[in-house]
Batch of 2 targets.
Target 1
Amino acid sequence: MYKKAPMKKFFRLFFPGLYLFAVFSGCLYARPQAETEAPVEIGAAIEAPVPEPPAAQPLVFTAAESVVQGDIFCVLIQSPQTNRIKGVLADLSGGDGKKILSMTGFPVPPRATTPAADNADPADPAPETGETWAVLGGISSVQRPGDYTLNLRASCEGEEDTVFSTPIAIRGRSFISENIPLNEDMSSLRADPDPRKAAESRELWALLVKTDTSSVYHLDSLSLPVNGNFRETSFFGDRRTFLYTDGGKANSIHYGLDYATPRGTPVYASGAGKIVMAKQRVLTGFSIVIEHLPGVYTLYYHLDKIDVKLEQLVKTGDKIGESGFTGLATGPHLHWEVRVAANAVEPKNLLTLPLLPGAH
Ligand SMILES: [Zn+2]
């Protein structure tokens, strides 16, 4: 209170002076500008130059020339303009024109355009403009090696569809053959007719052929679903013969990898994604399916415990359950499988190669 009176007095004296100074200095500042700068036409200053709309440049297609049984193959469709491609459909056809695979393309999210200063690479090109779509397919382990044709149709806004065809050779590889004797319980589990098995098989197939073009969760390589050096007891593409107790036999293909794991071993998500199945099934026991990309799924079978719920989003390495000994199994193990456009592919390849090569 005591000090306010002198301060008020000071401001009363000071402010009129400050106001006059501001007006004066404003005049001084404005005058040289008006004299030295060229007269500005108000209309020109407001109107930004309108760029010519870019002419539609041809789409660029990138595809492999050959693939091996069990490989993922990827076709990239690049447009210099954004928001141009509206849809992409593709198929792989044999020499007789018969389709062996149908695929639906999806838009790839733009890559990060602002790398952290520490990681900035001067050799890195400027952020790409335009847009990229991808088509992913999986080559079945039983697909006959030979020459095939990839046919692709891209629909663009206000343009004729762009059609692209290119030859793709499928090369063969070797697979293991094995006999698997089943005890009485497992023999009847596998061989006895059960409408639940057929219904569950149809349900899974309907899920695996689904391509939700907005389901883009994981572009990189996958991680092992178990920690530790567990023995692999079966491999991708094994040609199996089940031997029943009554002397009967049945041939089968093994679609994934088997890891011999003690019951209760934590099982982790191999990549980021959405849980699209988490339930008990007759033949595969407690089972989980994760969607990582449109048409790309990982499957986890014979679990003792499921820790996730349908529609739940998971990150790479999240614990999703525990391995076990449920369903058709001759011992405790985890069955891990990867599906692309409904076909099972070699999971080991994807521990080092990204799901979407060249796009990330
Ligand atoms: Zn298996």
Target 2
Amino acid sequence: MMYTTEVQKHLEVEVREKNPNLYRGFHLPPSKCFAYRGFEHEDGWFQLIQEASNKIEGIIKTMPKKERREHYAMHVVSKNGCLRVYMSLINAEIESVLSDLVTFSLHTCEICGGKGERTNNITRCEEHKDAGNRKFN
Ligand SMILES: [Zn+2]
């Protein structure tokens, strides 16, 4: 199976544009933020990252302006079969959204978004469990 990175980039840009506060770090130099690497996960998790991003953006928007600028995503990455977002700064509300994101991703195939299960640190459905891995960098 071949993966195209074009689909992923298009979805990534959409998520980032809809959540400008959360993804403000994407404009920072590599020395300050891992975000320049882009989202490092398969397409099946885009709905999850979209929903979590919308929730976190909503939380950030309720903060006072100065505080708002301090909360942004440093890295969006697939790690040990779950989807993680590392933040520059975190509060209990954001932490709860990110903890749900981890839980949801552990039951969602990273390739197709269908029901998945984690085996050997990757989360896939029955159909994709033997598909190859994409290298992001
Ligand atoms: Zn699948």
